[in-house]
Amino acid sequence: MRLLYIAATDPYRDSRAQELLDALLVAATFGAEVSVLFQDDGVWQLLAGQDGAPLGQRSLGAQLEALPLFDVEHLYVDRHDLRTRGLDEHDLLLPVTALDTPDLAGLLASHDQVIRL
């Protein structure tokens, strides 16, 4: 089964980013082919050098760096959302494929299920 998780929330605003990461790691552990699209404020999850300690939280960035250990290697970012926030691919802690808006429909269609948080 091909699953696409859409990370669309700020990494430390609430628990949704952590919950999405936990869910996709469980799916990957049980053999699903997992891809992740970072969109909207979810692009902040990819920012290098983040630290959740001042907020009393674990660093989501450090956890994301472990994704390849779980065979989660298909990572995408919405190029428009990245640029809107003044970021580019060099600011990110992981290698991702940046997609333009027309390419997003194809990404969504290529998966059996799409989960957005």
From TrEMBL:
InterPro entries: DsrEFH-like, Sulphur_relay_DsrE/F-like, Sulphur_relay_TusC/DsrF
Pfam families: DsrE (PF02635)
Alphabetically ordered keywords of this record: Transferase
GO molecular function annotation: transferase activity
Record keyword Transferase present: yes
Gene3D superfamilies listed in its UniProt record: DsrEFH-like
Family per record: Belongs to the DsrF/TusC family.
Full protein name: Sulfurtransferase complex subunit TusC
Organism: Amnimonas aquatica
